[in-house]
Design a protein that fits this description.
The complex is a heterodimer of chains A (334) and B (166).
Chain A: E1 2-4, E2 7-11, E3 23-25, E4 28-32, E5 36-43, E6 46-53, H1 54-66, E7 73-75, E8 80-84, E9 88-93, H2 98-101, E10 107-112, H3 113-127, H4 154-157, E11 198-201, E12 211-213, H5 214-219, E13 231-233, E14 236-246, E15 250-252, E16 257-261, E17 265-272, E18 278-285, E19 288-292, E20 296-313, H6 318-323
Chain B: E1 18-21, E2 32-33, H1 34-39, E3 46-52, E4 55-62, E5 65-70, E6 75-91, H2 94-97, E7 106-107, E8 114-122, E9 126-130, E10 134-151, E11 156-157, H3 160-163
Parallel strand pairs in B: 3-11
Antiparallel strand pairs in B: 3-4, 4-10, 5-7, 5-10, 6-8, 6-9, 6-10
The chains are: A alpha+beta (334), B mainly beta (166).
The structure holds fe (ii) ion.
Chain lengths: 334, 166
């Protein structure tokens, strides 16, 4: 047992065979071996089992932790994931896989956010070996996730999501990214122009006359599929991110969200939120704008590192407005 | 030479993506392209390309010199193509132009009255703050496209059927 912020994480002693601990979260048990993560849960008197490649599991859990369980559903794959109830979080297995759910073979349990957060962080720390960065593209990180327990990579998994209060670079707000503060230009964005806007402020207005090179800022992102906040207009948040390889989760929306593709191309697979049945594919190129409705889940594929602006509305009442039918799941009628 | 080539769009060079429907209505995705929209817009027409309750993202064709605008809340402009100079004036009496609860941008009648705050010149990829209580004017030194993060206002234009995949 280890204590983090007065929350007790239920973990076994390290396995003699693999060196990894087994974690208990409510009725769920989560363990790993050389290649795989295993999630087990009881249903109808049986012990149910789900298996995932450990790298995919770590990439997914890393996003869930870094995003603070995000908006709505974070599906690690078609079987397991979390639903944010803002203060509490559901962890589920099989709930959105109709073959399980229809037969009562699924399980959903609700946890106070600090407990599930502490447990997920402990799992990430224990299951991540030295040299593996769950935030990196496969081309950028090693295969050291394979095998028995071998060191850790706390520095990589403790990265904080960068959120500005108004706009990065303003006094007292998030810092701009530079070589000297540890954000070199990513290899895939070596051709992105790094010039700065000309800012001429009259005396006394230095804090209000402000601009930044957003594309240069994004070219220096050291993570994939991890939005940062770069402008705040009331509850409207621009959350651009750089994407390479596969979004490690299937995000189920509890509100409409919007994508603006800033560079290159992402292919989105869109499925029904509850059943996972295919609904659409959106191939988005630079300048494309699309809504992701409130009743779907989606996963992106980006063959080259690309810049995506995710546009969110953080109004707290939104999930209830969709759930109750007060709002239709689509943003506009035309 | 890097092995990677980053592809941005521009008014003269953009490719729209594709929406492939399996079991849905294409209108639910409200799929448009900022450059495509701006290529058909009047200068500084504020065409809404994304909306979430009262909040919007507008695609704006930057061409020539704009009117003066004022806002009661922060707005942000990202230059997606071209080169735009933004002049800023701190309004002496912002309430008379855009009252505190006024949403979205309003046009300033005549010249704005207040102190000059300065100016910014933005090229592709640059983002500028248009601060609450200020008046601003765009001058496109090269015709281009801006993406504006703001609130739905009197000047916002919604023409979804014209701009989206059906
Ligand atoms: Fe999403």
């Amino acid at each position: 047992m280890s204590a983090a912020a007065n929350v007790l994480v239920n973990a076994s002693a390290p396995s003699n065979e693999t060196g990894y601990r087994t974690f208990t979260l409510g009725s769920f048990k989560i363990s790993r071996d050389e290649y795989f993560v295993h999630v087990t849960w009881p249903a109808k008197g049986q012990q149910m089992k789900h298996i995932m490649s450990a790298d995919a599991f770590l990439r997914a859990m890393m996003r869930d932790v870094a995003w603070g369980f995000f908006y709505g559903w974070v599906n690690f794959d078609g079987m397991v994931g979390t639903r944010n109830k803002y203060g509490q979080v559901e962890f589920y297995a099989g709930r959105y896989a109709p073959a399980y759910h229809d037969r009562g073979l699924d399980l959903v349990e609700t946890f106070d956010t600090p407990l599930i957060m502490a447990t997920f962080k402990a799992i990430l720390e224990d299951f991540t070996n030295k040299g593996f960065d769950p935030f990196a593209a496969p081309d950028e990180t090693g295969s050291s996730w394979v095998g028995k327990k071998n060191g850790s990579n706390t520095e990589a998994i403790d990265r904080q999501r960068q959120a500005c209060k108004r706009m990065p670079g303003l006094p007292g707000d998030a810092e701009l990214r530079t070589d000297s503060n540890g954000y070199p230009v990513n290899r895939a964005f070596a051709d992105v122009v790094q010039d700065a806007p000309e800012v001429h402020a009259e005396a006394g207005f230095e804090n209000d006359v402000h601009a930044m090179n957003l594309f240069a800022y994004l070219s220096r992102s050291d993570v994939t599929w991890n939005p940062s906040v770069t402008s705040v207009c009331g509850r409207s948040l621009c959350c651009p991110t750089t994407e390479e390889y596969i979004l490690p989760i299937k995000h189920g929306n509890d509100r409409v969200e919007w994508f603006v593709q800033l560079s290159d191309e992402i292919e989105w697979e869109v499925e029904d939120k509850l059943t996972g049945l295919p609904r659409a594919k959106a191939i988005m190129k630079a300048g494309d704008v699309a809504a992701m409705p409130a009743n779907i889940r989606h996963q992106g594929f980006s063959k080259k590192r690309s810049m995506l602006l995710v546009w969110e509305n953080a109004t707290p009442e939104l999930p209830e407005m969709y759930e109750s039918g007060k709002l239709q799941p689509y943003p506009v009628n035309f | 030479m890097s092995e990677f080539q980053t592809v941005f769009g521009s008014l003269n060079d953009y490719t729209k993506g594709e929406l492939k429907i399996i079991n849905d209505d294409p209108k639910h995705y409200v799929f448009s392209n900022i450059f495509d929209v701006a290529s058909k817009s009047k200068p500084y027409e504020k065409v809404v390309v994304a909306i979430n309750l009262e909040y919007v993202i507008e695609a704006v064709r930057a061409e020539g010199v704009s009117d003066w605008y004022a806002v009661a809340h922060d707005e942000f402009a990202i230059v997606m193509d071209g080169e735009v100079r933004i002049d800023l004036v701190k309004l002496d009496n912002p309430n008379a132009v855009a009252p505190a609860d006024k949403q979205g941008a309003v046009k300033v009648k005549g010249e704005p009255v207040g102190k000059k705050m300065g100016h910014i010149v933005c090229k592709r990829g640059h983002q500028a703050l248009l601060p609450a209580g200020a008046a601003y004017r765009f001058t496109a030194t090269k015709t281009g496209v801006m993406m504006m993060q703001t609130v739905l206002g009197d000047l916002s234009v919604q023409k979804w059927a014209e701009i989206c995949y059906k």
